[in-house]
Specification:
The protein has 15 helices and 24 strands. It is of the alpha/beta class.
Length: 478
């Protein structure tokens, strides 16, 4: 589908700008299609054929979508390698991907160009693999999630509703190796908008670009939205053009959602999925504000959702499982991991724990591997974090278990205070949460840091936090 959409976008939008590079260079929709065809011819000359893997280690630059489209035009599969990974992490990803060709320099894309050479058209095949998106875990062997034309088609129809030309200016603020870009490039082609690339995302730059180009939508992971709200220049920026904020790619605390809605003066929508599911749940622009603050909404059209094991638990908490036409084909070259991730009837086990409320909204309470047991009682960190994030002296918080000789595990609140030299005490945090949380859920120690550690995908690095809380001085409560 990508080759056809690229050609259609070129006919519809022509010389309209599709991407603006960090250097200021502009690439039109016509250029995307023309140059990608020339690069496709070069890939054929380099020996790539249908089903081969092309690995891109070139960051978020115009050459990335050009090479991705070129590979799609010959039936090759593109995988991106996040340039923020360490050398060792990159090598592990490439070992799993086993690419026929690696491009690690944007200039190499242009070196492949073969103007005037014919690229044979592909036969339609909805099951043809198109992209491999590697999961962002911090430990273990990387897993590559495979998406084909069928998955991309469903995601595109869900996002665009089949409408052309509805895209506006937006910031390309996350790695192109991420799920968002790899599965939503078709929708970008249909939208016809301008994407402004950033060599490195910075809150100040994002706010300035939003103001200067009168962007109507803020989109990003919770970390990015939080950093924009903390940016000292925020109030000096004219953000009156913003009419929607979309947060996805990780859990957003109620406090963050409420503050974003208030300070941007725009509705906040949340999106929830995992890489393997492609699409999941979300809230709508006309939903009550509390939906985005405390839930991740309802399934998107065409998405099935169930809680595995929820019926057997007292609190209704179970593992979130998703199924739709966007569900991955499987993990690249890893049938055992694929079998473990999918139920017998094709649902993806997300690893997230959730419960339904009386309106059918999904509440996330944590990860299956993050839940800990204190004195025989289950504790879900996300529930505790959501409440503690509302404390007026707390900017950010993560709750992590520490081993305990008596209770087995106890919760430690790792907090980023508004004033680093005047953090709230443990007693103050417990008093703040005592009326809404059972005693066994309250934190039993507090660690103060300037900023939560993040993974290369800008998610909270809980592995690093686990090491931090295990080595910090323990406090025992009566």
């Amino acid at each position: 589908m990508l080759p056809g959409l690229a050609a259609s976008a070129a006919r519809r939008f022509g010389e309209r700008t599709a991407y603006v590079a960090p250097t200021g260079r502009r690439v039109s929709y016509a250029e995307l299609d023309d140059v990608s065809t020339e690069v496709a011819a070069g890939l054929i000359r380099a020996g790539l054929t249908e089903g081969d893997v092309l690995a891109l280690v070139i960051g978020s630059v115009p050459e990335y979508p050009i090479a991705y489209l070129a590979a799609a035009k010959i039936g090759a599969i593109t995988t991106g390698v996040n340039t923020r990974l360490s050398h060792g992490e990159r090598e592990r990803v490439l070992a799993v991907a086993a690419p026929a060709l690696v491009i690690d320099d944007p200039n190499a894309v242009h070196d492949l160009r073969r103007p005037g050479e014919v690229v044979p058209a592909l036969e339609p095949n909805p099951d043809r693999p198109v992209a491999i998106v590697f999961t962002s875990g911090t430990t273990g062997t990387p897993k590559g999630v495979v998406f084909g034309e069928r998955q991309l088609d469903f995601i595109t129809r869900t996002d665009t509703g089949g409408t052309w030309g509805a895209g506006g200016d937006q910031i390309a603020g996350t790695s192109f190796a991420h799920l968002a870009f790899m599965t939503k490039l078709p929708g970008k082609l249909m939208g016809g908008g301008v994407s402004w690339m950033m060599t490195e995302w910075r809150a100040r730059d994002a706010l300035e670009m939003t103001s200067r180009h009168k962007m109507t939508r803020i989109g990003g992971i919770p970390t990015q939205v939080a950093l924009m709200l903390r940016e000292p220049t925020f109030d000096a920026c004219d953000l009156s053009s913003v009419n929607t904020i979309i947060i996805g790619g990780g859990p957003a605390t109620p406090a963050l959602v409420a503050e974003a809605r208030r300070r941007f003066d725009a509705p906040v929508l949340v999106r929830y999925a995992c890489t393997e599911a492609g699409i999941g749940t979300g809230t709508g622009v006309h939903d009550p504000p509390e939906d985005a603050e405390t839930t991740v909404g309802h399934p998107q059209p065409g998405v099935e959702l169930r809680l595995e094991g929820g019926a057997e638990t007292d609190d209704g908490v179970g593992e979130v499982c998703l199924r739709s036409p966007a569900t991955m084909i499987g993990y690249w070259r890893d049938p055992a991991a694929t079998a473990a991730a999918l139920t017998s009837d094709g649902f993806v086990r997300t690893g997230d724990l959730g419960r339904f409320d009386d309106r059918g909204r999904l509440h996330l309470v944590g990860r299956t591997k993050e839940m800990y047991v204190r004195g025989g009682y289950n504790v879900y960190p996300a529930e505790v974090e959501a409440l503690l994030s509302r404390h007026p002296d707390v900017i950010d918080v993560a709750v992590v278990p520490r081993n305990d000789e008596v209770m087995g595990e106890v919760g430690v609140a790792v907090i980023v205070p508004r004033e680093l030299d005047r953090p709230p005490s443990l007693d103050a945090l417990r008093a703040f949460a005592r009326n809404e949380l059972a005693r066994h859920k309250l934190p039993e120690d507090v660690v103060v840091i300037a900023r939560l550690p993040l993974t290369p995908m800008d998610k909270v690095d809980r592995t690093a936090l686990a090491t931090l809380v295990q080595t910090s001085h323990p406090r025992r409560l009566p």
